[in-house]
Write a structure and sequence with these properties.
Elements: H1 4-13, H2 22-25, E1 30-32, H3 39-47, E2 52-56, H4 62-65, E3 73-78, H5 81-91, E4 96-100, E5 120-126, H6 132-138, E6 139-150, H7 156-163, H8 174-182, E7 186-200, H9 203-210, H10 226-239, E8 242-255
Parallel strand pairs: 2-3, 2-5, 3-4, 5-6
Antiparallel strand pairs: 1-7, 6-8, 7-8
């Protein structure tokens, strides 16, 4: 394991882009515990017959690209400007139309998507905020909206480790999301919820992971957080790893027929 100073330098010199953790996950420096479901396995069967697919909040397009071959008409939206060009570079060669949408300042998010009514056979969403009414508008009757969401308990212990601030944990969990969708003329075809952890084996990997969340840690640099990172480094030196809470839930819904 590299010394603390080298790991700190690695964090600040690493340029994170898209939503690609392969630099730290591919070497095993970061490992997620398995969940009760697999996002790809749950969605793949629907894509065999779908003609029009929308992926909301595609990030850098890395996840969507792994579903290739994709339906004849596949669209992806992204509201975070640094990711748009990355997504185009990855997805356009696969025949995907990448649509830049305005990043909303507050909820409801993704409430004005540039698509016609009843247009899509399936809409998927991995970790992106959504507006149930807008999803309902753009889906065909009987079509599926499938989403995996990050629950409000995720990284709560990481926030306390780095910022030591009082947490106001919102009510974002499976029950809340299901009730919201049911109230907007969806039926629940399947769902699951799980709380696990992401394990980090060195503080460099953890710091690179933190850089993926600028809306949570807008002022983050390793130099600015050196004291907190040194504490984490010493814990890892003692225990061999540190675990960060990871709360996910999955919902497969169907738009009720009019």
């Amino acid at each position: 394991m590299g010394c603390f100073e080298q790991l700190i330098d690695e964090i600040d010199s690493y340029s994170f882009s898209g939503w690609d953790f392969s630099y730290i996950a591919g070497t095993g420096r970061m490992q997620e515990t398995p969940m009760k479901w697999n996002y790809f396995s749950r969605i793949r069967p629907y894509l065999y017959t779908a003609e029009r697919l929308l992926d909301i909040g595609t990030g850098g397009g890395e996840r969507l690209s792994r579903f290739a071959p994709l339906p004849a008409e596949t669209y992806a939206t992204e509201g975070y400007k640094p990711n748009v060009e990355i997504a185009k570079r990855i997805l356009v060669p696969l025949g995907v139309t990448v649509v830049e949408v305005d990043g909303d300042d507050g909820p409801p998010y993704n409430s004005n998507l540039p698509f016609a009514d009843s247009y899509f056979d399936i809409v998927i969403d991995r970790h992106e905020a959504y507006c149930p009414q807008e999803i309902h508008r753009i889906l065909k009757d009987g079509a599926h909206f499938i989403t995996q969401q990050v629950g409000s308990l995720s990284i709560s212990n990481l926030i306390q480790l780095l910022d030591d601030r009082d947490l106001e944990i919102p009510d974002w969990n499976l029950k809340h999301a299901e009730n919201e969708l049911l109230q907007n003329s969806f039926e629940i075809a399947g769902s699951a919820e799980d709380i696990g952890f992401i394990r980090f084996y060195d503080v460099g990997a953890l710091g690179i992971y933190v850089k993926a969340f600028p809306w949570v840690f807008p002022q983050f640099t390793a130099k600015r957080y050196e004291k907190q990172l040194r504490y984490i480094h010493e814990r890892i030196e003692r225990d061999g790893y540190i675990d960060i809470v990871y709360h996910l839930f999955f919902i497969d819904t169907v738009k009720k027929k009019a």
